[in-house]
């Protein structure tokens, strides 16, 4: 069964999942047809997401011939220090992500979502006496 992209929130969530799986395959990359099967995506929806990630400079799409058919191999261009570090990052599903920049009206410098996310990951270390 394929997943249909019905709204922006679903698209952003799927984008995050696609990026995560591409990163998990590392530098050897993954054929997009395998990825679509793994995530139950249609090739149309999957391609749309891959193009979105490519435009953001997060992955590379290399056209290649596989068993007589043209496809793309997806390889991450940016690796997070740890996959876990991006799992719950609010930016991955943020509806304002496209207009957010350090100098913009929407900015990570004053983002309550990022602040809450960072604080939720904080480890409380008892103060030395
Ligand atoms: S910094 Fe805040 S506003 Fe900007 S993309 Fe991330 S969550 Fe959204």
SSE blueprint and pairings:
Layout: H1 8-25, E1 30-31, H2 32-38, H3 43-55, E2 59-66, E3 69-76, H4 84-87, H5 112-120
Antiparallel strand pairs: 1-3, 2-3
**Computed structural class:** alpha+beta
Highest-level CATH class of the largest domain: Mainly Alpha
Ligands bound here? iron/sulfur cluster
Q: Could you state the CATH homologous superfamily of the largest domain? A: Winged helix-like DNA-binding domain superfamily/Winged helix DNA-binding domain
Per DSSP E runs of 2 or more residues, the count of β-strands stands at 3
Architecture of the largest domain in CATH? Orthogonal Bundle
Strand order of the largest sheet: 1-3-2
* Domain module count: 2
The CATH topology label of the largest domain is: Arc Repressor Mutant, subunit A
Distance between the termini: 59 Å
- Secondary-structure element order, as H and E? HEHHEEHH
Percent range for β-strand residues: 5-15%
Helix count, DSSP H or I runs of 4 or more residues: 5
């Amino acid at each position: 069964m394929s997943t249909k992209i019905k709204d922006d929130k679903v698209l952003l969530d799927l984008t995050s999942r696609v990026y995560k799986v591409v990163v998990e395959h590392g530098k050897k990359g993954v054929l997009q047809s395998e990825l679509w099967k793994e995530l139950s995506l249609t090739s149309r929806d999957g391609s749309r997401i891959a193009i979105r990630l490519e435009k953001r400079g997060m992955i590379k799409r290399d056209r290649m011939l596989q068993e007589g058919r043209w496809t793309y191999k997806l390889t991450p261009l940016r690796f997070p220090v740890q996959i876990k570090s991006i799992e719950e990052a609010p930016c991955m599903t943020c509806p304002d992500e496209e207009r957010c920049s350090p100098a913009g009206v929407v900015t990570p410098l004053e983002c309550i979502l990022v602040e809450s996310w960072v604080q939720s990951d904080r480890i409380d270390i008892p103060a030395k006496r």
